[in-house]
Amino acid sequence: MTNEKYSKKSEGKTKGVLSISIISFIVFSLGFFPLILAGRYVLFFISFDQIWQYFLLPFLIYIGISIAIFSQFFISGIIIHVFNIKYKPGTYEYSFSNKMAFRWMVLCSLYTPMRKMLEIFPVGGTKYMYYRMLGMELGENTLVGGTIMDPCLTEIGENCTIGLFSVIYGHIHDYEKGTLIMDRIKIGNNCIIGAGAIIMPGAVLEDNVKLAAGSILTRGQVLKGGKVYGGVPAKEIILKKDKKIK
């Protein structure tokens, strides 16, 4: 009985890995079509039969890389949005047979390479368009310099600054229990998240909150509006006013 159960689990894992691999292969392959079309268009006008035309190669390569990056963002984002590859808060069995867990795995396979590229290449407003395509609620005039692990579970208000190397988690993968815990993160308006800060699932930052660099906001923790927090775990910091020198 144990061997049969193990065999079914192993078979389900194999099917799950194969399914995710095929999905990723199709999506990222489609992302190269604009580059192929652009290359064909260039070759129609430039035959590279003259030496001076080879001096165009560095510029064409740069343009080609840019086209490939933007098209991968656009096509993967469109597919995620159209097929609604998103997940909801809750505690789920970490298994390919679990619907929400499988959606999380598929999104990770598509989003993780894009997330890495967001950290390397300055793509400007494309980043925020991509986040919104993935289901993230993002206010105007907000700068996201950190890493968003789960866009569909993240809400950030207006006029916020998310510092470099900060990480906002919408999930906790518990290997010991074999569970996947997911919850929403809400950041209000006019908030500042310092560099290297970590925010865990279920955390809430009300309006006008400042979180110091390197702080850790624990799961489900709520930071009251208009206050300054810091430390591990994050606690309110009372700022002393400077005394006037007579």
Explain this structure to me?
Helices cover 40% and strands 18% of the residues. It has helices at residues 2-30, 33-45, 57-82, 99-120, 125-133, and strands spanning 90-93, 137-138, 143-144, 147-148, 154-156, 161-162, 167-168, 171-174, 179-182, 185-187, 192-193, 198-199, 204-205, 210-211, 216-217, 222-223, 228-230, 235-236. The model has no long low-confidence stretch (mean pLDDT 90).
Write the SSE topology:
Blueprint: H1 2-30, H2 33-45, H3 57-82, E1 90-93, H4 99-120, H5 125-133, E2 137-138, E3 143-144, E4 147-148, E5 154-156, E6 161-162, E7 167-168, E8 171-174, E9 179-182, E10 185-187, E11 192-193, E12 198-199, E13 204-205, E14 210-211, E15 216-217, E16 222-223, E17 228-230, E18 235-236
Parallel strand pairs: 2-5, 3-6, 4-7, 5-10, 6-11, 7-12, 10-13, 11-14, 12-15, 13-16, 14-17
Antiparallel strand pairs: 1-9, 8-9, 17-18
Structural descriptors:
alpha/beta; UDP N-Acetylglucosamine Acyltransferase, domain 1; 5-stranded parallel sheet; 6-stranded mixed sheet; single chain; flat; 5 helices; 18 strands; 246 residues
